[in-house]
Amino acid sequence: MEPQTAAGKVLWHFSMSLDGFVAGPHHTMDWMTGATFRPGLVEEYAETTGAVLGGRTGWDAYPDPTGIYGGAWQGPVFVLTHHPEDAQPTPGVTFLSCDVAEAVRIAREAACGKNVEVFSPTIGRQLLERGLIDEIDLHIVPVLLGDGIRLFDNPGGAPVRLELLVGDDGKAAVDVRYRTVPGE
């Protein structure tokens, strides 16, 4: 896969379980313990990210912007919420109560030509519906959670066609093969 570039894109970016969850119940992330990622991945995203846009529920579960990319990234964080008045003020974090398109505009401006990373399934889905997501970056962790917060949950909605950015065939299916780990 080509390295991520800082091109002013809006990225919907997550590590995800094989069954489509980006967080466990109550936004737990302990399921990622022991997962390995390709060398330089964290640094790649830390260098190309100019701003982060997330939702209030995720922020309330992890209200520390210094933990983004294990502390390797620092920059403006925007939290979209219906109730900014009860949010705990945090340096570097701006609580927004506006339309998602306006939130992306604000984050893009703050990103200064780098990418805006969307760390919210709900906001990402809304942006996708409006054509405001440039890329979806997923890192599939070899685990089946069975419950939690899905990346894309749109019952009754129309399918969203995507183009694969790896390889020569943008319509190619991605082959993944795992085996179960006894005793876990």
Structural summary, described in words:
The protein contains 4 helices and 8 strands. It is an alpha/beta fold and 184 residues long. A 6-stranded parallel beta sheet has the order 5-4-3-6-1-7. A two-stranded antiparallel sheet has the order 2-8. β3, α2 and β4 form a beta-alpha-beta unit. The two termini are 30 Å apart. The relative contact order is 0.25.
What descriptors fit this protein?
two-stranded antiparallel sheet, 6-stranded parallel β-sheet, 19% helix, 22% strand, 8 strands, alpha/beta
Please outline the helices and strands:
Elements: E1 10-17, E2 21-23, H1 41-48, E3 49-55, H2 56-61, E4 77-80, E5 93-96, H3 100-111, E6 115-119, H4 121-129, E7 135-141, E8 149-150
Parallel strand pairs: 1-6, 1-7, 3-4, 3-6, 4-5
Antiparallel strand pairs: 2-8
Summarize the structure.
Strands 5-4-3-6-1-7 form a 6-stranded parallel β-sheet. It is an alpha/beta fold. The protein has 4 helices and 8 strands.
Compute the number of strand runs: 8
Reading the helices and strands in chain order gives: EEHEHEEHEHEE
How far the N terminus sits from the C terminus, by CA atoms, comes to 30 Å
Overall body shape: globular
User: What fraction of residues sit in β-strands?
Assistant: 15-25%
**Mind telling me the C-alpha Rg?**
17 Å
Overall structural class, as computed from helix and strand content, comes to alpha/beta
Low-pLDDT runs: none
Q: For the largest beta sheet, what order do the strands appear in spatially? A: 5-4-3-6-1-7
For the biggest sheet, the summary is: 6 strands, parallel
Indicate the mean pLDDT: 93
Query: What is the share of helical residues?
Result: 10-25%
Number of helices: 4
